[in-house]
């Protein structure tokens, strides 16, 4: 058994959202993700794993190719393997609890418009090809 207190585990960084891995079991991990106002994730997917978010506090918008979903305290989001998604945090700090599980939890990033320093890795280019921005 693993047990954590999200109020104790949270960490904040005004430069980039913090994803703190709390533990790993078998083919999965569990994380606390801390977002300052206005922070945005890269537009990415996990080809070989499912990613689940639970909004503990704060909120924002989760974007996928199928549209936008408002994230508020109590919201629960499940991204199946390969689903492209981007999280845009709202005007207050947000604490998300995340679980990933699958054969390979690595992300592939398509783009990250809010990060001018982002450059695609070879694995991103191999996965998305000409879709990389």
- Oligomer state equals single chain
Q: What share of residues are in beta strands?
A: over 45%
Q: What's the count of strands?
A: 10
Relevant CATH superfamily: Jelly Rolls
CATH-derived topology: Jelly Rolls
Average pLDDT over all residues: 95
The Cα radius of gyration reads 14 Å
Please count the helical segments.
2
Strand arrangement across the biggest beta sheet? 1-2-9-4-7
Q: What is the CATH first-level class name?
A: Mainly Beta
Shape: globular
**Strand count, sense and closure of the main sheet?**
5 strands, antiparallel
Task: Enumerate the spans where pLDDT stays under 50 for 5 or more consecutive residues.
Answer: none
Structural class: mainly beta
Order of helices and strands: HEEEEEEEEEEH
Please identify, by name, the CATH architecture: Sandwich
Q: State the helicity in percent bands.
A: under 10%
In total, how many domains does the architecture comprise?
1
Distance between the termini: 42 Å
Task: Give an overview in words.
With about 130 residues, this protein is mostly beta strands. The protein has one domain (about 10-120): Jelly Rolls, CATH 2.60.120.10. The chain has two helices and ten strands, in the order αββββββββββα. The protein has helices spanning about 5-10, 120-130; strands at about 20-25, 30-35, 45, 50-55, 60-65, 65-70, 75-80, 85-90, 95-105, 110. It has a five-stranded antiparallel sheet with strand order 1-2-9-4-7, with no helix packed on it. It has a three-stranded antiparallel sheet with strand order 6-5-8, with no helix packed on it. Strand 1 and strand 2 form a beta hairpin. It starts with 5 loop residues before the first helix and ends in a 5-residue tail after the last helix. The mean pLDDT is about 95.
